[in-house]
Amino acid sequence: MKKISLKNITKQYDTNQEKILENFNLDIYDKEFIVLVGPSGCGKSTTLRMIAGLESITSGELSINEQVMNDVPSKDRGIAMVFQNYALFPHLTVFDNIAFGLKIRKEDKKVIKERVEETAAKLGLTNYLKRKPKDLSGGQRQRVALGRAIVRNTNIFLMDEPLSNLDAKLRIQMREEIIQLHNQLGTTTVYVTHDQTEAMTMASRIVVLKDGAIQQVGTPHEVYMHPANMFVASFIGSPTINFLTVKVTSHALKIDEQKIVEMPLDNSTPNEIIIGVRPEDIELVSEPDAIKLTIHRVEMMGADKYVYGEIMGQKLTVRVHNELDIQSKQHLHIKLNPRKVHLFEKETGKAIETFVKDTVVV
């Protein structure tokens, strides 16, 4: 069942300015955890604010639970929003911050007390209800912001980069807590972030945005394994995917006369394309006639090392185990697995669907 539907949505602040979104279409289903991800200025927060009723819609139709919401005030949309800066009242206690929305709606005092205490117990805030926000850690403040949303008993949550002000360790912890809450409450959640790690670890589906347009919608696995274009391939995954410009021959892809990978392609493939290969999908080999990688720099990253180098003038990053003794200015020999190579049109950046030994490669 659709919970939120955006049909041909366009957003423009001024007729003389560029459109923030244009012909934006997205259906969000019951109990999904949808993550809108993309670089700054791509339109993800604007989309969230239009769903919330905090931004007007220039054209198109927004519906929630099959009711058109374009002109419905934010307070009547049956949603709860969690902001990046927590938006807590500094002069109110944790109890009063969580209870604020209920008091505005003039709920019974007994009901407010019961629901606030129940929500605080879920979030581990029972012992902090009398404190002010200044007496809390960043993670505790974020829990209070979540509590203010949860206490309303709505089934749609909107979250605008709620973890961006937390340190790395706390972000990981809060990611887990938000997902647990989502599953426990059975809510539909729309979550905005610029962090692809958050998107990959939290989403049931990811919406990748660029310049106000959807580039791809899919599960984390689909977006990672089958990127629709070079932008998606480069934005999702760390370290970022390698791109190499290659010539297409009847049985192989080459740089100059060096065979990069054996890949018999059909006749519809252009003569020159760009291939993408992720750093973890490159194999180190001992064959002297294999591709030679000249190493420029090695980074120790804990369990792994990132090896930065080049092959025939084109940059390449390889992810290897930290126990390998690899130094800069060395040479390594590498091999590419054709089933791990992504193909893209050079002119448009779109993924090429073709056939390699009866297996579809995108």
What is the CATH C level class of the largest domain, in words? Alpha Beta
The helix/strand order is: EEEHEEEHHHEHEHEEHHEEEEEEEEEEEE
Query: How does the helix and strand content classify structurally?
Result: alpha+beta
Strand content: 25-35%
Helix content: 10-25%
Tell me the Rg in angstroms.
25 Å
Total number of strands: 22
Question: Mind telling me which CATH architecture of the largest domain this is?
Answer: 3-Layer(aba) Sandwich
Strand neighbour order, sheet with most strands: 6-7-8-3-9-10
Number of domains: 2
**Can you summarize the main beta sheet?**
6 strands, mixed
How confident is the prediction overall: mean pLDDT?
90
The residue ranges in which pLDDT falls below 50 over 5 or more consecutive positions are: 355-362
CATH superfamily of the largest domain: P-loop containing nucleotide triphosphate hydrolases
The CATH topology of the largest domain is: Rossmann fold
Q: What is the straight-line distance between the termini? A: 31 Å
Shape: elongated
* Total DSSP helices: 8
Would you kindly provide a written description of the structure presented here, covering whatever features stand out?
- InterPro entries: AAA+_ATPase, ABC_transporter-like_ATP-bd, ABC_transporter-like_CS, ABC_transpr_MalK-like, ABC_transpr_MalK/UgpC-like, Mo/tungstate-bd_C_term_dom, NA-bd_OB-fold, P-loop_NTPase.
- One of its GO terms (molecular function) is ATP hydrolysis activity.
- This is sn-glycerol-3-phosphate ABC transporter ATP-binding protein UgpC.
- Keywords: ATP-binding, Nucleotide-binding, Transport.
- Residues 4-236 form the ABC transporter domain.
- With 362 residues, the protein is of the alpha+beta class.
- The chain has 2 domains: 2-232, P-loop containing nucleotide triphosphate hydrolases (Rossmann fold), CATH 3.40.50.300; 242-361, OB fold (Dihydrolipoamide Acetyltransferase, E2P) (Beta Barrel), CATH 2.40.50.
- It has helices at 44-52, 94-104, 109-122, 138-150, 168-185, 196-202, 220-225, 230-235; strands spanning 2-11, 21-29, 33-37, 59-64, 67-68, 80-82, 156-160, 188-193, 205-210, 213-218, 242-248, 252-255, 258-262, 272-277, 282-285, 291-300, 304-311, 314-321, 331-336, 342-345, 354-356, 359-361.
- The protein has a 6-stranded mixed β-sheet with strand order 6-7-8-3-9-10, with helices on both faces.
- The radius of gyration is 25 Å and the shape is elongated.
- The two termini are 31 Å apart.
